[in-house]
Amino acid sequence: MNNGGRAHIVKSYQQELDYLRTLMADMGKQVDQQFDLAMRAILDGDNEAANEATAMDRDVDEMEREVESLAIRLLALRSPFGADLRETIAALKITDGLERMGDYAASIARRSRSVGETKGKISLSGLRSMGSLVQENLRMMIHAMKTQDTNEALALWHADDAVDESYTTFFRELVTYMIEEPRNIRPCTELLFIAKNLERIGDHASNIAERIFYAATGTSLLHQRRPKAAWNHKQKSSEELETEHHEENENGNEDDQKV
Questions:
Q1: Residue 253 lies in a domain
Q2: Number of domains comprising the chain
Q3: Residue 6: inside a domain, yes or no?
Q4: What does the alpha-carbon distance between residue 247 and residue 75 come to, in Å, rounded to a whole number?
Q5: Cα separations (Å) of 120 from 50, 115, 155, 184?
Q6: Is position 106 within any domain?
Q7: How far from chain centre, in Å, is Cα 257?
Q8: How far, in Å, CA of 29 to CA of 57, rounded?
Q9: Range of the domain at 72
């Protein structure tokens, strides 16, 4: 993200901003790798992948601390403003979300050992589909973090609906398994927790999309309503949302003047 096209006077300031972006990109890639290992653990019964995904959680936590330290340093010593200020503050929120995603991935990996006995008895196709959607969103998120592409961030924000729908479908499947065979209750309960973890990872990806969008544009998505089945409707571009935001501000100023 540039600062209105102007180079920073202090070269080390620009270097620190660039390093902050690099750290965040690396953290995103680490979480994506951890998630991939966790899904291999649950879908393929890969205990080695489960162990690796669990161990990686410490690395993700350490990366969060490093980003937090650098962001606080930038705020305290460099006094960023405009887009740089928004980006630095967003970095603190984004890395918190990434750290939580890592926690959920580690939880999935740990729980994978408890559901190994269900292989062949309970279909995991719904979980596989949900995992694919979440990982697709994860990778879209990482790319949007790198490019600051507001339309991609907006697409990611909308994409969370598909994850929610997939979770609901798989939830119903598991309830059916438990009703039909009481012996499935314990493993299905574990799978419910795993599916919920996936859904929460999707939520955090959507929240990070909001942070990326705000950092790049100064416009919040919090007042926007995310329509259900968003992909079946014409979506507003980032430019249209920014225009709406400015119009709302102008209308608000006119009302203030009337008062």
A1: no
A2: 1
A3: no
A4: 31
A5: 20, 11, 36, 12
A6: yes
A7: 41
A8: 13
A9: 11-239
